[in-house]
Amino acid sequence: MATTKLKRTSLYASGATPINMIQAAFYNEDCIVYDMEDSVPLAEKDSARLLIYNTVRYHRPANKYVMIRVNGLYSEFIEEDLEAAVRARPDAIRIPKVEYKEEAVRICQRITEIEKEAGLEPGKIEVWCNIESYLGMINAYEIATADPRIEALALGAEDFTASMKSTRTKAGLEIFYARNAILTACRQAGIEAIDAVFSDINDPEGLKEDTTLTRNLGFDGKTCVHPRQIDIVNSFFTPSAKEIKYALRVLEAVEEGKRLKKGAVTLDGSMIDKPMELRARTTLAQAEAAGVAIGGNLK
Amino acid sequence: MINAVGREIPEKIGSYVVKPYAGPMETIEADAPVVSKRKPSKRAVGENKLLPDLKAAILATGLKDGMTISFHHSFREGDKIIGQVLTVIRELGIKGLRFAPSAVVNIKNPSIVSFVKDGTINRIQASGIRGELGDAVVNGEVELAEPVILRPHGSRPHAIETGDLTIDVAFIGASAADDFGNCTGQIGPNACGALGYSFIDATSADKVVVITDNLVPYPCVPMSISQMYVDYVVKVDEIGDPAKIGAGATRMTKNPRDLLIAQRCADIMAASRLFKDGYSFQTGAGAIPVACTNFLADYTEQAGIQSSFTLGGMTGAIVDMHNRGLLRTMLCSQSFDAVAARAIAEDPNVLEIDNSMYANMFNKSCVLDKLNFGILGALEVDVDFNINILTGSSGEMMGGIGGGPDVADGADISIVTLPIVRGRIPSVVDKVFTCCTPGSSVAVVVTEAGIALNPKHRSYQMLKEDLDAAGIKTVTIESLRDLAYSMTGVPKPIETTDKITCIVEYRDGTVIDVIRQIKRD
Amino acid sequence: MIVKQPAVAGTLESSDIQVSIFPNPGNGLDIQLQSIAKAQFGDSILETTRAVLAEFEITDAVVSLVDKGAFDWVIRSRLQAACCRATESKFNWKGED
């Protein structure tokens, strides 16, 4: 399902380094993820939590979907992380290594409690679940539908392949099934599906190949490991002028058909079916969200 | 009085009569003939121009108290000539000199400040006095007979030719020279590349001394400066430190912020209608310009076109673009790294040019008059697009004027690249502390937080259309300032006394600003 | 609150500030500031420091600040972290509801 709120690219910024947090706000990523988890050393969890709280609550970057990744569900930090993260009022909280529906339910309930305590509008903060193991993948649909807050599932390929005893490769055949499994779950649940990172920051051609697959499979976005990846990934999720023009023609033909009460509509000699119409609408929604000028009178 | 960029300047500063900057169309034309102190002078039969040491050469020039001496700064922080020459002058007890190099870089051991403190030097004119000397000047720690005069590269040859700056003795460091004074910076262990700053000194000074550590058999080829201008030659042990002159090629930065700014800058050039076969550009040194050159080369290749020329200071990145067949000619007045220095000697399409030909607006034309795109660095830019490239956030001397004001004025599209904040210091501000380049000559400001076009620039309409057509979004300069201040807070203004320590001249010889002494706790 | 132990928060990296707090029983506040942006923002940094110490009701402490050009909210965060560590207390997240 296409959305108008773009989530093509997510970039992590470590809560341990102010300079990274500040600079991350200026790149072209749609979603910024302030990280309390992997990038923060154990001894700095408290200071990172405060830095992220003050940044998101009082100086959140404009025009970005702002997320906070909290520490693991079973870590000693999760309770205080949630206290801080909810009160910081991000667009979403990103939960690492979710494996069971019950875990997602528990976190969402806790978020609701804190929202109430803090006098915040309940249910406003969305939740992204990172799927980073075969268990999470098997339970993906249940997790995706555990709570209305859940907005996206994101595949974490490094931990996933470790859990599978797979070898992580650039071609990514070892995560092909997981990509499809998560995508299928998200489509059925009506939420966003976010693909795994491409780890080699010095291989733009490899990134393009990988992102081609990301897009062709149907993902809504991809996590980036480095600012240099952002513009490339964004471009794959931004329809070209040619694609927009074609989509407009498809929808104009459909409208024309409705007006003339025609049963079957054709364009350039071939029949326009429902999937074609759906794809055209997706293209235009993506273009509009990306701020690309759309000609014509149909949106 | 208030000049055309709104700066309060007295009508006279000591004996210096201020011609206030009056705006881009108000250039003052000179009608007097070019001034030179060069005299017809015949070499006597058997006379040896090669003298045994610096002391002999300085004595031979007849250098006296109160005279003007000059140097080039092409050896950058690796320069060992200025220190050696000043030390001998001090030993000879000569005082009260006017020190007029093309620029003062931050050389230590010996420091220039010590020569000011002991009275060897009592006046200074240069494009910049970065580092220890500059800080001593703006903090009032050294006593000079008159304020320092700071000029852009294009303006120094003009000041020399009008007679505002006459040079008694020019000391020209060369990485290779013969015993008659033919010399170059292109070859030898301390090669620095182009000697573009020195041509005007060679042709205008009363006496010219070439100093080298690499005496080659007559005649020295390449022959950047001819024997016909040279009075004496001296061989010393070392003229520089090659590691500090610029070893290897300037590397591509990995800083994602600088890469983003460079990419946006290249995007703007590629979107312009002037980006077509035969276009010209100038980028310069520094992380952002080097990265920008690489991105521009890729765009040029993709478009299947070739740039006709680049000029000014050269880097390995530019040589690389030339070697890829994407850039026909390099007009070098300065070389920023060893790759660029070597290229002049090796390739007929890489030319060493006179700095005056590059940037002096009072030539019958300068190369800048033909420039399409000019990339500039800055410490600060304000909401009137004025640029400060001299003074840092607490008034300290951070840079030299360089060729920035010349390039901005000459280029069809001048692009200032800078991060929106440096640490807690905002770079886009209400009013720059020191105005070096008038905002009217700045077309675009590129930061990581957005691109601002100057609606008052002569290329605005064209640029706006081209960027709109390419889908490149722009913001107002005020919104960049607001964003910067929202992050940093509004800085407390720098407090100064009334004493003027530096006069900042514009490329037309008028006064664009002054730097008053900084109040320190 | 009482400063029970010396504590440090923040780093000496660009755009950060290192805050060190030491016990100073009965001797009030002694704040020492080193900053690369002292001329422009010294007063503002001291003001933020006093405000955060007041929020923690810390009246006796030696506070040493080594600032590398941190923004105000970074300074505030580092001070809060250092105060929590020095007073061995958890941050009161409900305090700003």
Description:
The complex is a heterotrimer of chains A (299), B (521) and C (97). Chain A has 12 helices and 10 strands. Chain A is an alpha/beta fold and 299 residues long. Chain A has 2 domains: 9-237, TIM Barrel (Alpha-Beta Barrel), CATH 3.20.20; 241-289, no CATH class. The longest helix of chain A is centred in the C-terminal third of the chain and has 19 residues, at 241-259. Chain B has 521 residues and is an alpha/beta fold. Chain B is globular. The model of chain B has no long low-confidence stretch (mean pLDDT 94). Chain C is globular and about 30 Å long. Chain C has a 4-stranded mixed sheet, covered by helices on one side. In chain C, helix 1 packs parallel to helix 2. Chain C has helices at residues 38-55, 72-87; strands at residues 7-9, 17-23, 29-35, 61-67. The longest helix of chain C has 18 residues, at 38-55. Helices cover 35% and strands 25% of the residues of chain C. Chain C contains 2 helices and 4 strands; from the N terminus they run βββαβα. By secondary structure, chain C is α+β, with helices and mostly antiparallel strands. Chains in contact: A-B, A-C, B-C.
Task: Supply database-style keywords.
heterotrimer; B: 521 residues; alpha/beta; Glutaconate Coenzyme A-transferase; ten-stranded mixed sheet; eight-stranded mixed sheet; 27 strands; 21% strand; C: 97 residues; alpha+beta; Ribosomal Protein S5, domain 2; four-stranded mixed sheet; globular
Count of individual beta strands of chain C: 4
Q: What is the CATH T-level topology of chain C?
A: Ribosomal Protein S5, domain 2
Task: Give the overall shape of chain B, derived from the CA principal axes.
Answer: globular
Alpha-carbon distance between the termini of chain B? 30 Å
Query: In which range does the helix fraction of chain B lie?
Result: 25-40%
Mean pLDDT of chain C: 96
- For the largest beta sheet of chain C, what order do the strands appear in spatially? 1-2-4-3
Number of domains of chain B: 2
Question: From the coordinates shown, what is the CATH architecture of the largest domain in chain B?
Answer: 3-Layer(aba) Sandwich
Give me the Rg of chain C, rounded: 12 Å
Oligomer state equals heterotrimer
- CATH top level label of the largest domain in chain B: Alpha Beta
